[in-house]
Input
Amino acid sequence: MTETSDDPLLRFRAEFPILERPTYLISNSLGAMPRAPAVYDSLATRLGAEIVAVPSPGGDGLTADEERIAEAIDNRTALVAVSHVLFKSAFVLNMAPIAEKCRRVGALLAVDAYQSAGTLPVSVDALGADVLVGGVLKWLCGGPGGAFLCVRPELRPRLAPALTGGMSHPAPFDFEPPPMRCRDDAFRFRQKSLRRTDRLLALADARELRSATPRDPCRRGGTVAVDFDNALEVSPELNARDVVVDFRPGVGTRLSPHFYTEDAELDRAFAAMDDVRESGAWRPWSARPALVT
Output
């Protein structure tokens, strides 16, 4: 989730009248954007629920221990809310043990697919999600504020989203009446995404740069993070050279190739990175306020 689009997603979540049990469980140390746990905190106060936070193994939000999350779920749990892919490191969670435990105790599973939709196959059934939310700004080439929601059919009489709109339709400006049309050919982008991230990791390895991005393709989203000295200052200089990256503390410069990105562009990005680091072109940025995009 990004700062520009998590508000509508969280408003969706805020309206779910699911608190039939005393505990509301969120794994808010798993690399989710910090604003999401803040909203859950306010909901817990308003609804009289308890939040149980499950920390990541290193306490840094770069990975997740799915078995530990599953162990925290019990028959008091109303909702388990987790991210499919962690925003810092692109670590992909294995939802199977979490979903199985939710089914066993009767808790609902809400999956945030913001960092996975558009670059990973996202099947609500395969994930075992009762509720899946996401946005279009990251991988689906949409603008800020565009979000989507899927609720398991048998739960829909109980759970009513507060917001919906025409942008949920695959051809919103055709103004078609129901039923909804959905494309079924988006998974072809996943293989290209893996080829692109493989290439980025190889380019980073050739330069002996650190990367928190998982090497296992099954655990990897669509972003590769590379870290090195002065990555905070190098990142804005790359953007000034039309190499679009961002920076996150703890993981460094993030590169996110889309389905239209060509190999030559990845090579050019690392060539530019080499030049910025070696020439010292990053130094003027050290005197400017640090910005995280």
